[in-house]
Structures are given as structure tokens and as C-alpha cells.
Amino acid sequence: MGMGGVGKTTLAQLVYNDDRLNGIAVSISAQKVNVKIEDVTKVAKIMSFIPAHPLNVLSDNDALSLLAQHSLGTKIFDIRPDLREIGKSTVIRCKNLPLAVKSLRELLHTKASPKEWNDVLNSKIWIAENTSEIHPVLKLMA
Asked: What are the structural domain ranges in the chain?
């Protein structure tokens, strides 16, 4: 369990596709069926002997590494130290959510200069940052 974009669906897909488990993964989206997360947790506890495990956002270093991996093709900014600080500011704007960081791939992958990265960082995509339940960067995927 965790907030949107933290990786619940990705984790469920990995578990479901793991041949060693030969089991069934069940996904419940509180957004789509209009239930409270507390109700889902109560059901999960009743249906399983394994306690629910909350997923959290990435650490600053992991979020920055994910950004580098998806935008530069490497896990560190050593090949582009001129983009490191802009990258740090970008993952902060993404609130270290893996899905938000990954969704910037298409925007940053083709950008080569610090100016272009700053343009993305200062773009209008961030305007609804504090007024919506959905992170603004995730709206790019819609």
C-alpha cells in the first residue's frame, strides 16, 4: 500500500509474473472503486497471514539515480555533472515518486543542455503541484 506512483502496480506485476510463485496477485485501486485505503487494509489482513507492507517514496539518492538511468542511460551523473544539480531539483519536484521520475524520461532523454533541463524544471507542467491529488508530471502520461 502507498500513495499513487510509488510502485505498487510495478511490484504486483513483478510478483504476478514470477514463475517461482505460481500464485495470483490481486490489485485493488481505491481510485477506481471508490473505497477507503483503511477498508482495503482490513480486507488484506483478513485474507492474508502476511501483513500489508507500506511502500514509500525513493530516497534522494535512489530517485536521482533513477532519473539518470532513464534520462542519460547511466545510474550516475558522472558523465554529465553539469546536470546533477538540476536533476536533484527535478526529483524534489517529483517528490521522489518513481513513476513521476520515470515519466520525465521522454522530456529529458532528448535534452542535452543544462538550459533545456532547466526549461523542463521551470515548465508549466508543475503548476498544479499543490492543487491536485495526481502529481502534475503523471498527467503527461494521460
From this structure: 8-47, 60-141
